[in-house]
């Protein structure tokens, strides 16, 4: 028989035989040890839904803490990473990725390499901000991902290295090293990420032309082969003046290059299956893209209530240069040359300078009300030259008819104010951002000047109500602006062949978007959101054509509007201890309207985007990853794009107490990714098919060393979050 009572140690009696009447000897029990204090610790859920963002508490997940930041994002709700490592939220590309409120100023593969070197053990949480509040620049309609690192002031040294190779018909590779040293009040950090990325595109383009009671078909087949070489770095130092004040200096940049070779044949067919004539084009291009960025930061915690001041001053310079050769050869139906070839050479240097200063202030009145205010000024100047030369008999003659010199200047002054309320189960946040923009685009060669000056107001509003422990609902509204990329304003012509070229549009207007959404979360596992978006002067790529010369050009233009309705469902579950699944399903209806003087045209489509990411924990520290993606047919601008899908597979092994990992990945296993599009509007009848080297196998190794519980580098939000994203780093 066992005797026990709270506060005493249990004890057993001697053995005895059970009978209807049995006497059992006394059982002695002793007082147990006195417990001085009991601490009950509660952990935040892995996924939290707040009024203006979704938060992933990485430090509360053993699985996520063992992964890189790149892998964490691949499995995050509503986030998808495509084959070129472009990150999108709810299917929208152009996401700004920040580390501790500071833009990384990287995109595509450059950003992916950086995130692969940032370990989950260094991350406190990831904030997914679909509709950014007033504190952030009003530019961009795709959202922000903010990665907040852990803060620990223990001295020491740590770092990580990673490297890998890929094969997609050509061999590529990438690597990276991240170092962090803290001693006393000083923290020094540095990172370097090199890589080489080869690839190819096979493009088939058909254009139907009707002119002078005749019809023509231009059948173009082009192959593009490229190799992109990247070298990016970042280094900085932070100094803690005291416990409340910190200053920091950071220098970052890249030196990238691109070798590109485009060759193709264009056949001209007139009401018969065989070509009347054809041209062959060969266009090798070499480009270099360099950047140096400097940031000074001052952060002050003004008192114990949470008042805070943050100041950033930034300067960045981008130097880009591209040299190309355009060769065109002419043949008749039998393949005999009918005229001398046309040989052109082009040089297109471009210099961009960005200056910025901003200040942010936070003032909590109490635990319920919180005020935020700030201001920012920025100045941008781009100087672009395009020089063409005609090559004859090995001599070069300057061609002024194709050459151009374009200078663009832009100044933006902004200020914002926001107030938040948070009590019990209700959260409310509202704000207003005001921006004044002044710009001047000057085509010196063509003697054309475009001046603009305008003031915009960007309100934001968020409300969230927790109904019970399992259900939370929310409502949000904001107004955003998307300014043209600098290269889209540049009126230079870049030729694919003699009958096809790309040209910028200095008259391109910014687009304005109003977003309103209603959302619901259940147990922080299933998230549902309905969104309506109206975009005025939406910027899209348009094809225009001269029927007489048969020359077609691609350019950016403003359509009248885009109306979009979307319903997104994100399901993040762990069916078992060894299976973690993140699934996103978005159904959306896009309707583009193109207004001309005589005719209004629309292009609409109901579409579905599905992505699924699954991790399976296997014995002996192996992990299997299976990812699937499907995009149904959709409308984009005036194009109808056919469906596409892919399946990716990966397996990784961790060892050395989780500090080292090896991963083998297989992208687009069935080689199904391609883009098929068609457009029929005005005098345009075009069909295209693009297949790229999406099928790829890769192997990657990563290793963490040094103290893993010390403070990571203090990376912050600079003043270049919008301006630098409009530059590009050479990767197409």
Automatic annotation (TrEMBL):
Does RNA-binding count among this protein's keywords?
Answer: no
Chain ranges of the Outer membrane protein beta-barrel domain:
302-703
Q: Which GO terms describe its cellular component?
A: cell outer membrane
- Keywords for the protein's UniProt record, in alphabetical order: Cell outer membrane, Membrane
Keyword Ribosomal protein tagged:
no
Kindly give the InterPro entries that the UniProt entry links to this protein. Answer: Beta-barrel_TonB_sf (IPR036942), OMP_b-brl_3 (IPR041700), Plug_dom_sf (IPR037066)
The UniProt entry, under PANTHER family, shows: PLUG DOMAIN-CONTAINING PROTEIN, TONB-DEPENDENT RECEPTOR-LIKE BETA-BARREL DOMAIN-CONTAINING PROTEIN
Q: What is this protein called?
A: Outer membrane beta-barrel protein
The organism of origin for this protein = Acetobacteroides hydrogenigenes
